[in-house]
Amino acid sequence: MRYIGDPILRKHAQAIDTFDKKLRTFVDDMIEVMYKEDGIGLAAPQIGFSTRIIVVDASELINGEYPRPFINPEIIEFSDETDVKEEGCLSIPGVYEEVRRAVKIKVKYQDEKGKEFTEEYTDWVARILQHEIDHLNGILFVDRISPIKRQLLIAQKAIPAIY
Ligand code: CO
Fold this sequence. Notes:
CATH topology: Peptide Deformylase
Distance between the termini: 16 Å
CATH architecture: Alpha-Beta Complex
Number of domains: 1
Strand order of the largest sheet: 1-2-3-6-7
Order of helices and strands: HEEEEEEEHH
Bound molecules: cobalt (II) ion
Structural class: alpha+beta
Number of helices: 3
Shape: globular
Helix content: 10-25%
CATH class: Alpha Beta
């Protein structure tokens, strides 16, 4: 696992253009790491690969086919309606803070075979997707909390001053 302060977490990750067996094995490995670490989402940069792959497990939250990968995901619409919920991140152990995010999003992505989808997601899945897609753009959830709370975390040494 890569932790806050590691430069890979600040990079804009590279798009995937080859949908082969190697990619499918990589996705399986990511899902295994996500479960081992007890996460509900994971982005490739968190395990040291600056590529646009995330995996999401929402099976405890809603019905549907989970866990599943979202490759080259892009949010093309955000609802005006937002809400605030507490988030954590496997790359920032022990830190949980409230983050404001859109309640509903429209996401364009590809599956592990390269097939394209555009789908709408709401509530927790929308939140997990926004958090994980942020990782692909070098953004961490502590970038989205109030500056005062962030300064407090730095003062408490919960996160580094420069990350
Ligand atoms: Co995270």
